[in-house]
Amino acid sequence: MVNINKMAEIVDDAARVGKSIPQLSNKYDYTLEDAYNVQAASFQRRLARGEKQVGMKMGFTSRAKMIQMGLTDLVWGRLSDEMLVEDGDEINFNKYVHPRAEPELAFLLKKSLEGPVTATEALAAVESVAPAIEIIDSRYKKFKFSLEDVVADNSSSSGFVLGAWNKPDVDLSNLGMILEVNGHPVQIGSSAAILGHPVRSLAHAARISTQSGRKLEKGWIIMAGGATAAHALVPGDYVRNVVEDLGFTGFTVSSR
Ligand code: OOG
Ligand code: MG
Fold first, then answer.
1. 156-182: per-residue pLDDT in tens?
2. 104-138 pLDDT per residue, tens
């Protein structure tokens, strides 16, 4: 018998205190469907503590990320208001297990999006687009997990940082993206790495979210997924994602 609530408690506690746990699959035999139920139940615990859902994140939307983590299926996770890190802010390194940064783009929706939609329909629902960074922090030891494990752990989501919003009239198909640490490029990529065009990630998000019982809401933020491999953070880092034509966003990591 799979105990969804018990597993949800384990991943939620680990995320809350920033302590690593063994992979759930070491102990539990569970399916991908169970894993999404664990994610939902663990997010429910956040809502019960007063957090609000503000959007959704997509993961493994680029080859670079799939190769880095050894998984090839798209995953998704839920974003809460508490995960937002203000542009330019400092994060407390001690609150994380082993945080990594990913250069991403974020979409802000001006209309809800439901069911299967084309990329063109998805773009028509976009109010604005921003350079973004996702701070991922798998709760599993050594950042190692199965597909079910990562999904149960809200697809490693931990924080997200947003730059200034731009009107979506910029051609998003092939924008240079540079992840810098202390002024040095550590990952260089293109928005084209995100499923060939980042708006496709948004279209997938609409379809997947609807299938799981909730459309994408007006006002939600959708993170399209890392364009490059993620970069491990250390205390004292100043991290920026600089996106051609869109600007940049950044944050610092506390010195301890
Ligand atoms: C899973 C999350 C992947 C992305 O942008 O591809 C992700 C992980 O790598 O821990 O957020
Ligand atoms: Mg990501």
1. 999 999 999 999 999 999 999 999 999
2. 999 999 999 999 999 999 999 999 999 999 999 99
Ligand 1 touching residue 156 (CB < 6 A) = yes
Q: Looking at ligand 1, which atom is closest to the CA of residue 65?
A: 6
C-alpha 227 to ligand 2 mean position (Å): 9
Residue 11 token pair: 């991943």
Q: For ligand 1, is residue 76 a contact (CB within 6 Å)?
A: no
Ligand having the closest approach to the CA of 62 = 1
As given in the structure block, the two tokens for residue 188 are: 């260089």
Q: Which pLDDT score is estimated for 2?
A: 86
Q: How many CB atoms sit inside 10 A of residue 87's CB?
A: 17
What gap in Å lies between CA 6 and CA 21, rounded to an integer?
14
**Ligand 1 atom showing the smallest separation from residue 66 Cα:** 6
| pLDDT tens column, 63-106 | 999 999 999 999 999 999 999 999 999 999 999 999 999 999 99
Q: Is 132 a pocket residue for ligand 1 (Cβ < 6 Å)? A: no
In order of start, what are the domains of the chain with their CATH numbers? Answer: 4-253 (3.90.850.10)
Task: For residues 168 and 204, give the distance between their C-alpha atoms in angstroms, rounded to a whole number.
Answer: 18
